[in-house]
Amino acid sequence: MGNNPWDAATYDGSFGFVTAYGDDLLQLLAAQPGERVLDVGCGTAHHAGVLLNQGVSVVGIDADPSMLERARQLHPTGTFLAIDAQAFGLSDLQQDAAFDAAFSNAALHWMSDQDAVLLNIRRVLRDGARFVAEMGGQHNIATIDAALRDTLTELWLPTDAVPRNYFPTIGEQATRLHDAGFRVERMEWYQRPTPLGDGQTPADWTKHFRAVVWAEVPRAQHAALAAGIDQRCEAGGLHPSEGWIADYCRLRFVAISI
Questions:
Q1: What is the domain class of 8-139+165-195+248-257 according to CATH?
Q2: pLDDT digits over 6-40, tens only?
């Protein structure tokens, strides 16, 4: 999941809404007991755990040690492997038979070589398998990222550490799926202004999802960076009367391997 240093406990505790918003993806997946599902970017394995409890066989992959450690603690009956989705095959998954479906929530946009990821997923699926996913789409967190970059610039700090996530349009992702060997059955882009947790601000969001940036900022400038981010996000409309929101835009799809 990119080069961001993840804190799995904080992810679950303070930003669990990211996982929760993906719960209804499982309804689209409609996995049946005995089916074999690959969870790409499984994180702490919330969704994999639901599937395991339904009698589904799940292999979860993630590149982050903190996420995988928590996944194994929470779901000891699951199989969770440290794998870069940009380079894997069935043997890396410790499998000798293709999967019936693949699932991914809030992970694909961290994978810069999207063509390789989609091709790898296709190669481990049987013909006619389902691939159900949600990811950041075009304009996702545009206001927050702009506030972060602009404040860094104002403070004479470098901006090159700010991650450049892959937030595609419908056309871009549909084309990549087609080229990888999928037929797109459903795809939608939508805005989802997302309330942050109690007491959380956009600056707090960046401290977690842009932790690699904060790690390079001198501690003496942390307060100024946080204040600048929040001021710009408020000017950008992310602080309505009911509280802070994140300007999420999501891309959701169902594709079939052909």
A1: alpha beta
A2: 555 565 455 555 566 768 899 999 999 999 999 99
